[in-house]
């Protein structure tokens, strides 16, 4: 019996590092590249249209946004604004998708059109600020503000996230500093040293608190630049003499937890119990760089079909894979209520039979 395999949803012409799903449009956004090295490997952000075709979830290239010499290593999404970590900078992008009117697509020039791109295809790159038209859907992507967010000797932005109302943006990188910026002006409002060494991940809470995890083996909670509490692996985590461990990521709570490993494996767990529901060993065969769930709102339920959840994964192997969790069998609520009522009726009848004067 062969190894379990996940279906390949899309293959890009460059290594993939970051992934987001827009719930309102159902767009899957994958980004990466070969960086500034003159290897011939391009850099870009690909906007993929998710559709159900013959009962299966598929993806086709809707728009390819060229990022020139900068590979996108991390992404955050807030409505129609993307924050892309590119080298030591954060670049804001705005994308707008809307239905075409009339036969506009037929009248558009051939440079703005193209066949549906499936996995393995080499898509054409599009310049920023242009529209791509695709079977009734238009997508326009434009560059907004950009700002340098890391200032170490080898600067690199490693993580970016928005706050709950999308008015602020937080970044972290190799210099260990957290920097908070207004959106969309990217005016800096806060800066402080959070970790000795690289910041691995961060999250902004609705109460204004900030959670950071770093390569210094610490996880910290901040109120602005004031430390509220801190965990350290050597003090709060299990001890393994031969294997080094560190806090790696801050994850939002939800029904499921998606995991990608350095060996390319992908798993789905129940968030509250960590029961493993899905596991594909070495799905990518190389480090998984990002995972994202299909949202439960917007177009998510329509695209999900009869499955309980869908997880997308990307890796340096340039592939985007789809991991579907079938709906688990459960007893309908109405049937449980009916059984309870029946049990009560049977109990009353038995009592009446055993004790004639019971009622």
From TrEMBL:
According to the record, the segments passing through the membrane are 256-280, 333-355
Assigned GO CC terms? endoplasmic reticulum membrane; nucleus
Which Pfam families does UniProt cross-reference here? WD40
Alphabetized Gene3D superfamilies for the sequence: YVTN repeat-like/Quinoprotein amine dehydrogenase
Region Disordered: which residues?
Answer: 101-128
> What is the recorded membrane topology of this protein?
Single-pass membrane protein
A Gene Ontology biological process annotation?
protein transport
* Molecular function terms from GO: guanyl-nucleotide exchange factor activity
What is the superkingdom listed in this entry's lineage? Eukaryota
Family annotation (InterPro entries): Sec12-like, WD40/YVTN_repeat-like_dom_sf, WD40_repeat_dom_sf, WD40_rpt
Annotated Basic and acidic residues bias = 103-115
Matching entries from SMART domains are given as: WD40
Q: Classify the main location.
A: endoplasmic reticulum
For this UniProt record, give its keywords in alphabetical order, as a comma-separated list. Answer: Endoplasmic reticulum, ER-Golgi transport, Membrane, Protein transport, Repeat, Transmembrane, Transmembrane helix, Transport, WD repeat
The UniProt family comment states: Belongs to the WD repeat SEC12 family.
- Subunit text: Interacts with SAR1B (GDP-bound form). Interacts with MIA2; recruits PREB to endoplasmic reticulum exit sites.
PANTHER family associated with the record: PROLACTIN REGULATORY ELEMENT BINDING PROTEIN (PTHR23284), PROLACTIN REGULATORY ELEMENT-BINDING PROTEIN (PTHR23284:SF0)
Q: What is this protein called?
A: Prolactin regulatory element-binding protein
User: Organism source for this protein?
Assistant: Colobus angolensis palliatus
